[in-house]
Structure formats: C-alpha cells, structure tokens
Amino acid sequence: MSLEIEVDVAGGRCCHRCDKPLMLVARTSHPLTLADGSRVDGTRSVGLCAGCDRDTPDAQGLLAFFAVHETVTDETVTSVAALLAEWVDRVAHPPILCEQNTGDEVDT
C-alpha cells in the first residue's frame, strides 16, 4: 500500500480533544478491514495541538519550533523538515482498525 501524507496549516480547525485551535493537520490514508475480510480505504486527519500534544515526544520539537517561529520561511525550512518528519512518522502509522472494534475507537 502506498502511503500519502498531506500536511497543512490548520486554518481555523479546532482540536477534537480540547476545542482550541490546531497548529497543523496531517491527512493520511487509513484502511478499515470489514468483518467479511474486505478492505475499505479511507483517510484520517490528525491535528497538532499545542496543549494536548505538549507531552508527546515526537511533537515536542515541532511545538518548540512554532513557539519560536511564527511560520516556516526559506531560512527555517531545513530545520523544521526533520521535526515535521518525526511527527508525521507517528501520525502515519495508526493502529489498524477492524469493523468489530471501531465503536471503541470512536468512543475514545
């Protein structure tokens, strides 16, 4: 399976955990295996929240970058690239969902 990830500025989207504005949103492919064994391909979005993700090790560097820099510029693009890759690596590999346990996933 080819994995595509798109990262954008959150653009006014709010965190589903605390309802504060997100900094970034990553969209990635996300498979769902149905009870009959067939697979449905979909996408999921993961937000970077300054409050909720502050204790997440792979988000801390990126949060620190944006605490110092308002935006990514030509001068800072190289330094933010590794931090972004670290965060994206986590959001790109979610647990695989099965139809039987999606209720648990939705409730959490």
Please describe what this structure looks like:
The structure is a single chain. The longest helix has 15 residues, at 77-91. The protein has one domain. The mean pLDDT is 80. It is of the alpha+beta class. Strands 1, 2, 3 and 4 form a 4-stranded mixed β-sheet that branches. The two termini are 27 Å apart. It is globular and about 50 Å long. Helices cover 31% and strands 25% of the residues.
Strand content: 25-35%
Compute the number of strand runs: 4
Mean pLDDT: 80
The helix-strand sequence is EEEHHEH
What low-confidence regions span 5 or more consecutive residues with pLDDT below 50?
Answer: none
Distance between the termini: 27 Å
The secondary-structure class comes to alpha+beta
Radius of gyration: 15 Å
Proportion in helices: 25-40%
Number of helices: 3
InterPro entries: DUF6300 (IPR046267)
Protein name: DUF6300 family protein
Pfam families: DUF6300
Write the layout of secondary structure elements.
Layout (H helix, E strand, L loop, with lengths): L4 E5 L14 E10 L5 E10 L8 H12 L8 H15 L5 E2 L3 H6 L1
Please give a quick description of this structure.
With 108 residues, this protein is an alpha+beta fold. The protein has 3 helices and 4 strands.
Task: State the main characteristics.
DUF6300; globular; 25% strand; single chain; alpha+beta; DUF6300 family protein; 108 residues
